Amino acid sequence: MANAPQLQVSDEIAIEISKMNKWYGTFHVLRDIDLTVYRGERIVIAGPSGSGKSTLIRCINRLEEHQQGRIMVDGTELSSDLKNIDKIRSEVGMVFQHFNLFPHLTILENCTLAPIWVRKTPKREAEETAMHFLEKVKIPEQANKYPGQLSGGQQQRVAIARSLCMKPRIMLFDEPTSALDPEMIKEVLDTMVSLAEEGMTMICVTHEMGFARQVANRVIFMDQGQIVEQNEPEEFFNNPKSPRTQLFLSQILGH
Amino acid sequence: MSDAHAHSIAFVRMETLPESPPPARQTGMPKWLRDNLFSGWANTLLTLVGIWAIYTILSGVLPWILNGVWNASSLTECREILAGQTGACFAVLKDRWHQLLFGFQYPSELYWRPILAFFMMLVAIAPVLFFDLPRKLLIFTALFPFIAYYLIWGGPLATPLVALAGCAAAYVVFDRYGKESFAAGFLGGVAVALVVWIIGGIVVGMVASETPWMTAVPSRDLGGFMLNMMLGVTCVSLSIPLGIVLALGRQSDMPLIKGICVVFIEFIRGVPLITLLFVASVMLAYFFPPDSTVDLFLRVVIMITMFSSAYIAEVIRGGLAALPKGQYEAADSLGLDYPQAMRLIILPQALKISIPGIVNVAVGLFKDTTLVSVISMFDLIGMIRGPILASTEWNGVYWELLGFAACLFFVVCYGISQYSQWLERRLATDHR
Q1: Which residues of A touch B340 (CB under 8 A)?
Q2: pTM (2 decimals)?
Q3: Does A102 contact B330 at a Cβ distance shorter than 8 Å?
Q4: Closest CA to A201 of A38, A17, A88
Q5: Phi and psi for B155 in degrees, rounded to 5?
Q6: Which of A21, A128, A229, B281 could connect to B375 by a Cys-Cys bridge, CB 3.0–4.6 Å?
Q7: Domain ABC transporter, which positions (chain A) (predicted)?
């Protein structure tokens, strides 16, 4: 209803979540989540902390296990079958709040590790791909340094490049700019914008509402483990329907 | 007017201040002495007391060492040469040198075999310790256990060859099937190895022949520092992989594996090593088939390895726990499977954190090999306490012998410790 198909968005389904529920112990974190993501969509998930938005995208590559409902990624259902899980994970890139680069490996090794071991790409080819993506995130000159020698913004860009090296069909971003200094947020967002412009399917948990306006074709607002409202960004920001959304927006855009 | 200036907060700096050198201070020896040794009356007093203590110790020990007698055939002769003066009787080391190193039963015309094995060991562990060396050297490292066995124990060449063939067959099977299913590869490998060993054992029994310079030496003839080195090297190199497996097993989601590992670790850690050694020497025979004669050396190796692997497992578990959860998640999210994630991401980091703890256990284990003297194996300490001190010539030469033993162990343990510090610096890539 709300998501009128946009120009770049195809009608091929990338992710389909239906009636998904998740509990931590007895705490009901995700309640009846229904979400269909089409290929090429750029979705921003917003919401107060503890609303389950990170948990939702972590369920998509099974870093968290859901207890009820169904998640289909690229036509494969997520179940406890390890083969399926590894297959989906190699198709779905993930960028974390705290980068999670491997500190004992150089930047280049960080980027080539998964292609070499999971995709069985020859080392030389993997290195070429890695350098290509490092150039894209504008840090090829750091390739032989270790993550600890880079700034936070650079590390996050490496993390994005590392995910891209697997040539994923879907990218998940879990608050990619929340651990960064204000000066570095822009460089990471720029990278994400250029990625979006190339038609990557993206789901992004973030508090960067400027980014949401500029890039997203759909904004989802979550609260208390449920999807409260979703809409095109213009409508979402200018004309929020639910009082909970109105309150949230007034709080984060208010100052 | 001046008030207005004082309250003004607007300020603009147009150029950067030039760098200036640090203030000139006194440097050199006098300053160092004053800062470190004589900075106050209390420190001055402590310095003087320290100098007096060092003087007292050295004035006692130095004459004893420098005045030492190196050529004598018994303690009595030493005393005659010294004629009442202070002095050590190092002649015992010279006289019993071979016994201290090889024990008193190893045939003296075969000493070249353990010596050769020792130097080959240095070559074999080099690529393991220093990973900048060419990786091809690891082939020699893999062959070394079989070569060393053949050199030290001698006997028919077919025995180590059959052992090697079994291991090679197991490796081939694991390499072939381990990729699809780890369990299938592992169990298949073990089964194939057992088959090769059993068939090989029968064949060896029939064709056994030994060359004259490769005479078989039974385990009970091994002794001296050689025995300590053999036990130390074998048990450390076996207990690190076993410790890793136990640590990972203890973290497993599978209750059976986790349970086995927890019970093993907790049980072994709760029992004194001496007890385990007595079990090895006396009781372990009950667990083997009645007519099998499992070598005492092998039984001791099994017990010490079990003991130290339990400790190493706990050290590594600490390293695993110290890794941020994000590392596991990042490895998972890239699609690495469990063995890959462990081998490439988790273990390299966890082991690096665990280096001081592992080295601690390794050094302790190496020194604990002297406990085998209690179950009447004649290692370095066993030799000193037994055949040497009990002999009529050298009865009473405690300081020299035990001091020598201490020096030997210190050199090896200090070497291990220095290596581990070098390794930590070499692996420090996180720039924290």
Answers
A1: 117-118
A2: 0.85
A3: yes
A4: A38
A5: 85, -170
A6: B281
A7: 15-249
Residue B119 lies in a domain: no
Of B60-74, B120-134, B193-207, the least confident: B193-207
Say if the Cβ atoms of B348 and A104 lie within 8 Å: yes
- Closest by Cα among B267, B231, B229, B232 to B246: B267
Q: Kindly identify which residue of chain A lies nearest to residue B337, measuring between CA atoms.
A: A86
Radius of gyration of chain A (CA): 18
Q: How many domains does chain B have?
A: 3
Q: What are phi and psi of A204, to 5 degrees?
A: -130, 120
**How are beta strands A42-46 and A92-95 bridged, if at all?**
unpaired
Would you say residue B26 has pLDDT above 60? yes
Nearest-by-Cβ selection for A148 from B326, B327, B431: B431
The candidate with the shortest Cα–Cα distance to B105, out of B227, B283, B270, is B227
Chain A contact present for B430, CB below 8 A: yes
- Residue (of A146, A125, A171, A15) closest to B334 by Cα position: A171
Looking at the structure, tell me whether residues B207 and B228 fall in a common domain: no
H or E element, residue A198: none
Contacts of A28 (CB under 8 A, 6+ apart): A21, A22, A225
Q: Best residue in A80, A101, A102 to probe B by mutation, most B CBs within 10 Å?
A: A102
Give the mean pLDDT per block of 10 residues along chain A (255 residues).
50 91 92 92 91 92 90 88 86 93 94 93 94 92 92 93 93 92 89 90 92 91 92 90 91 74
Domain assignment of residue B408, given as a range = 221-431
From residue B187, how far is each of A176, B39, B157 by CA, in Å? 44, 69, 28
Whether B303 contacts B277, CB under 8 Å: yes
Q: Which residues of B fall within a CB distance of 8 Å from A61?
A: 332-333
In chain A, residues with a C-beta closer than 8 Å to the C-beta of B333 are 61, 63, 89, 92-94, 96, 163
Same domain, B275 and B355: yes
- pLDDT, one tens digit per residue, over B261-296 is 999 999 999 999 999 888 888 877 677 766 666 788
* Nearest CA among A78, A42, A11 for reference residue A192: A42
How far apart (Å, rounded) are the C-alpha atoms in residues A127 and B30?
57
Instruction: Write down the pLDDT at residue A156.
Output: 93
**Residue with the two structure tokens 């590559």:** A61
| CB contact burial A153-176 (16+ within 10 A = b; e otherwise) | bbbbbbbbbbbbbbebebbbbbbb
**Which residue from B311, B317, B322 is spatially nearest to B266, judged by alpha carbons?**
B311
H helix or E strand, kind and range, residue B339: helix B338-340
Count of CB pairs separated by less than 8 Å, A with B: 75
* Closest among B149, B143, B154 to B110, alpha carbons compared: B154
Superfamily of domain A41-58+170-254: P-loop containing nucleotide triphosphate hydrolases (3.40.50.300)
